[in-house]
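Progress report, Aim 2. The chain analyzed during this reporting quarter is listed below.
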Amino acid sequence: MNKPREKAAILQAAPEQTGSMDPILLFTILTLVAFGLVMVYSSSAVFAQAKTGDSLYFLKRQILNLSIGLLALILGYRFGYQRLVRYAYPLLLATVVLLAVVLIPGIGSRAGGSSRWLKVAGFGFQPAELAKVAFVIYLACSLTKKREKIRAFSAGFLPHLVVSGVLIVLLLGQPDFGTAAVLTILLFFMLFVAGTRLTYITVAALAAIPMAYGLIAGSEYRMRRLLAFMDPWAHLYDIGYQISESLMSFGSGGLYGMGLGEGKHKLFFLPAAHTDFIYSIVGEELGMLGAVAVLALFGVVVWRGIRVALRAPDLFGTYVAFGLTMLIGLQTLINMGVVTGLLPTKGLTLPFFSYGGSSLICTMLAVGILLHISAAGNTNSRPPAAKVTWP
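Predicted structure tokens for the chain:
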């Protein structure tokens, strides 16, 4: 096959839809989003009233974020996952540029000691959220093209390690240790599924441990977070305040909860109640039953996402679906682990729940792509979508 034909084969356009999207996945996502809106209002109303004079302030902005997110979902679905092949590397490059730009003093917007936002027309955008989706698409494209060489160190392992290293260095410069950790774990998962030698993955994982320790030990605020994680009650009025309040909030709900809107810790006790620690308010107001119900809904998303990956019409679709599903699942587990004191504080949002535009919009874009793959793999009534041809 000559080079022009190779390129044409790789970049072939996605076909028309040939099946219906996964209705259970769509219904579960919409349920989570609707539930998230309710909890954003419940956890932020008093704080919004005190800060802005409008108890609906954060709810209205989240509804706007969701509106854009639904457009992103439709775009991801209509665009077609196979067309992503031609945009995988440009999207990755654009993400790298944005992550670098946000570090430039005077351009990146700082908040909470981190430079993670780009401000445009009064709205903030976090390139790190886009980086998660772009990284999955890049890995899926690269792993598919190198499927015959995936067990070779120089072709199947090292290039992906280098690319992830560039992204991680830029993320740590913000600093955003949580997203860097997510990308690292995601890389190992996808390499393992693709068939990379387990020896390479194991050695890299073991090498990452002292690196992570060095990053923690070399940063005062990370060491403080680690101390708070190890014994929050000993630092109740200092570095352990947030996690202690989270545990008290979660635990005070008991089995059935205090009732929707009746939580007390959101009343200026628990910081970030409507963002990173919104799951604590779920536990307080809806109890263990409500918290487990939310966890079960996320479990359904992971189950249906893996099912989509297994039924994808081609290897590229399988990798994309698996990567996006693991992205949502990992971030959910890490956020819930932080809230319940099982992990040190990472600053990661709870997908579909936490207040914030960048996370919601990029996650909804990922869901749109996932739904398109589910439609392409649905062969119940019509022929499947044509497969991407790789050189």
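Residues 1-17, 380-391 have pLDDT under 50 and may be disordered. Residues 19-376 form one domain. These observations will guide the mutagenesis work planned for the next reporting period.
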